[in-house]
Amino acid sequence: MAPLEDFFHRVAIVGLGLLGGSWGLALKKHGFPGQRVGCDQKGIVNRAMALGAIDEGAEDVAAAVRDADLIILATPVGAILELLPCLKTAALPRALVTDVGSTKRLICQRARELFGDEPLFLGGHPLAGKERSGLENAEAALFENARYVLTPLVPGHTSDVRVKAFASLLATVGARPYWSDASSHDRAVAFLSHLPQLLSSGLASLIADESAEERLPLELAAAGFRDVTRLAESPYAIWRDICLTNIENIQRALEALIEKLESMKIHLSDRELAREFKQAARLREKLRELN
Length: 291
Known about the structure:
13% strand, 2 domains
């Protein structure tokens, strides 16, 4: 019997940006024996073929997925939601359809309305992004040692051979599958991913305001400021859909942060601030242990 990771013979990757391109490169690096088909604009498809990220390309989604037994939707969240109805009819009944969207509740809700077992949908979110998007930033090692969240539509789907095969394929490219329901995922990433992005962008925007008319010399920005604002390079085009599809959780996270900052402002001159520093240091230590 062939290993589960060899279950898929033709993979269609819809969207050849950072994550889609990295999927193609990772499959090549780890010896995927089947065909890798990419779908995107003609110029991007040509670049992906030149990089070796795909074996063949298509500009039409239906044509790209027609014979695929694994379909990876690697577009922004809004485009994933728009593509799902098309894939319900265009994909093979035996196919597994998955995505890389940073929010899961609305995607899984829409998929649950459209999909049964033929084809089967499995929500996915690789925790392996970068602040810079695009095919030019894709790399074969992007998923190595990264957690990859999987959100099945119903618990019973975890026993489906297609889902097991995809989890095995994730292990082959070095990722670490992490199972979750969609709502729990979206609440967690609101605090652990979306809030850091908005904090970084908000801080950089604030300093841009303060440095206007040379009131604040950027020459004094050292490594700490550069580290904290690294995520500010992320494009709004990606984050617009994320904010729109996780707005309630993000609002709660922002409110909690504002409350925390207000407390720190009040305690700048007393020892209560030390408690915040100690608690923060303990969390950092815990994160190192998890890795």
